[in-house]
Amino acid sequence: MSMPQRPRTIAFLIDSPGDLLSLVAMASVFSYPKVEGKPAYQIRILCADSGCEAHGRGGLVLGGCIPYSDFNGPIDTLIILGGESAFAEPRQEVLRWIRRRAPHVRRLIGVCVGVFLLAPTGLLDGRAVTTHWHHAPKLAELYPKLNVDRDRVFIKDGNVYTTAGVTAGIDLALEIVEEDIGGSAAATIAHTLVLYLRRPSSQTQYSSLLAQQADVRGTPLRDLPAWVKSNLTEKLDVSSLARLVSMTPRTFARQFELHFRTTPARWIQSLRIQAACSLLATKEQPLKIIARLTGFRDEQSLRRAFIQQLAITPKEYRERFSRLRVPESD
């Protein structure tokens, strides 16, 4: 009988004031998987100073940390967290420690603006990287040897991973679980954490699904979201929507993009995809039926829209969630 695999060490390096949201969220993901009944990962939180506390926004303090220079154990995955400290002048002793450790870790990760602490080590030179879209231009300006992609949720280049804004760390953590343990484990964790959809690395940072939540109270567009969600099978072109809110098509298009920060066509498509996702996760209906119920012309149109916005096919989406459905009792 083979011995159970020892837990892999996930080490978070944080410099105060740091990103405690990403730390807690990613650590939560890694706390779920088990191998042969035992935790697959063990978490170590390393402070990039001599203290044993990590400080975040709003006065939050996390105790029980280990000064990075005191930690001599093995590290499977080293995660560099961002925060306000990422834009300060990097301390050379911290950079030297990262350089010394990097060749001996299986993965090296920069979360959000944590890439600004990794970049001066030279370990990212020539690699494709990403960060929060707001800071991407500054990253490209300061470190011209990096290939900065401001759109992707996360990027893997060799054994180096970088992510967009803080919540993208959850998507990356799930990707790591899938690499190590399998897709079923990652899907189960996503379901447990009540994630709407686990975003793949190719997903754009800006989600048109967020745009539907734009505040349009007090404008002629105030009733549009509720009406459209209830009428996805109708003809929903600009002319039809403009008539609904008593505007000319030109005025409607201008006002829509002002408030929703996307085009009407892409917004409608995102609502139809959202409705299709709900049906795929809960129903066994054929794809052609789901396409018709959600306003797509046919099954191929549904498939193209999924790939365009979610970088996944409807069939793949259904397969992921079918693992999570509990059979109904007789």
What are the SSEs and their pairings?
Layout: E1 8-14, H1 20-31, E2 34-35, E3 38-39, E4 41-47, E5 54-55, E6 61-62, E7 66-67, E8 77-80, H2 92-101, E9 107-110, H3 115-118, E10 128-129, H4 136-142, E11 147-148, E12 154-157, E13 160-163, H5 168-180, H6 183-192, H7 208-211, H8 224-229, H9 238-244, H10 249-260, H11 264-282, H12 287-293, H13 299-310, H14 314-322
Helix pairs in contact: 1-5, 5-6, 9-10, 11-14
Structure, explained:
It is a single chain. This protein has 330 residues and is of the alpha/beta class. The protein has two domains: 185 residues, Rossmann fold (3-Layer(aba) Sandwich); 123 residues, Arc Repressor Mutant, subunit A (Orthogonal Bundle). Helix content is 40%, strand content 13%. It is built from 14 helices and 13 strands. The strands form four sheets. The chain has a seven-stranded mixed sheet. Strand 8, helix 2 and strand 9 form a beta-alpha-beta unit. Helix 11 runs parallel beside helix 14. The protein starts with 7 loop residues before the first strand and ends in an 8-residue tail after the last helix. The C terminus is likely disordered.
The CATH homologous superfamily of the largest domain is termed Class I glutamine amidotransferase (GATase) domain
Q: Return residue spans where pLDDT drops below 50 for at least 5 consecutive residues.
A: 323-330
Report the CATH C-level class of the largest domain.
Alpha Beta
Lateral strand order in the biggest sheet: 7-4-1-8-9-13-12
**What is the rounded distance between the termini?**
39 Å
